[in-house]
Amino acid sequence: MVAGYRVGPDYIDAHEVHLAVGADERVLGFYALVLTPPELDLMFVADAAQGLGVGRRLVGHMAERARAAGVSSVRVVSHPPAEGFYRSVGARRIGTVYANPPAVMWDRPELVIAVSP
């Protein structure tokens, strides 16, 4: 799904982007937090790193950053197969974001992650 997707310098300058890096210095995953309005804009974990807790650690870190910024909840528009993961880390489904061809060809679950004070 994300083959060839690039996060460039302009995006990184405008948003909080955080990496999970392995002992071998390879990127295992990353996320981007948008604060206004609060949204987990991007989060990806490398296929080889899935199931190792990397995503759970990234969401935990995101919640800490959001809390530090005074945010009480973070919106997530999820790739449909990732909905179960987000629910497992405490997200609650609040709706559906409908397909917008040609940019996005499928409906996506809309969730919210509460960030406790």
TrEMBL record:
CDD domains: NAT_SF. It comes from the Bacteria. Gene3D superfamilies: 3.40.630.30. It comes from Streptomyces gobitricini. Residues 1-110 form the N-acetyltransferase domain. This is N-acetyltransferase domain-containing protein. Pfam families: Acetyltransf_10 (PF13673). Coiled coil: none annotated. InterPro entries: Acetyltransferase_Butenolide, Acyl_CoA_acyltransferase, GNAT_dom.
